[in-house]
Give the backbone structure.
Amino acid sequence: LMVVTDLDGTLLDHFDYSYDAATPAIELLKHHKIPLIINTSKTYEEVVGIKNELCLDTPCIVENGSAVYLSASAWPSLAGQLSDDLLLVGDQYVKIFGQPRTKILTTLQRLKSQSGYLFEGFSDYTEEALVKQTGLSQSRATQALNRHFSEPIIWQDSEAHYLQFEADIKQSGLMLLRGGRFIHVLGCCDKGQSLAWLKALYTRSNNSDFKRQSSTAEPLLVALGDSQNDAAMLAIADIAVVVKSPVHEYPTVPQPKGEVVYSQKEGPAGWNDEVLTIIKRTR
Ligand code: 2M8
Ligand code: MG
Ligand code: MG
């Protein structure tokens, strides 16, 4: 078993970002040494903060599939595979699927001045403005602004202009994904593609935590998410859990590989119920 989760609106409450309601299931995963992997729109810096609180030492996928971070000491097999898109940065290997944010911001600036589109993004926000907009704490807002591969924006223009903007973004080799509050502008990647890479690594690896867990080569993949940007990872899961949102409909999961479950409770409370049920069922 391998559990992969979105954060905002899924493991974390949409409004106050707390995971308290999910604590029983998180503890049970730890007890059984089942890896819990974060796959989120958030930045690496935000995820490090959350992983520290949760005492997690697993790899993570950040900025909507733009990059996978893995501890260099836990994944020595990657040492011989460094390349243009697999870097060693500090004590982490970084597998890059996305595009540099500098390139994304340049493209957005160009489209804005060429076509007069109306939108604002994280690069326009101070820390205070982001706190107001999202309800993040001051320190998490600082970490959220420290982005490497994506720009979250708020669209302030017409629906017709949005379609034109989306076409321009595609033309520029970028794409758009819808999160809980923002539209994310990023390279051509998603949470599913990066998760597939990480799953293959787990399948091949001698990662000790994982070996103790599994007698078969392929881990049973459980994925949990609440928004449209989670669809690609939910689609490749053996058990996909669509977590209920207090602010929007369940996303659609196109061509799911496995079973799709819809939580009755919202956010971390729904997460807790479904993960407990799955652990009971599969062990
Ligand atoms: C952004 O992501 C959420 C996730 O769905 C959204 O679009 O609503 C990200 O930029 C993230 O870094 C930030 O923590 C979050 C705050 O709500 O917003
Ligand atoms: Mg979410
Ligand atoms: Mg997310």
Remarks:
- The mean pLDDT is 95.
- The pocket of 2M8 (ligand 1) is lined by residues 8, 41-43, 46, 134, 136, 144, 152, 179-182, 227 (CB under 6 Å).
- The radius of gyration is 18 Å.
- The chain has two domains: 2-98+190-282, 101-187.
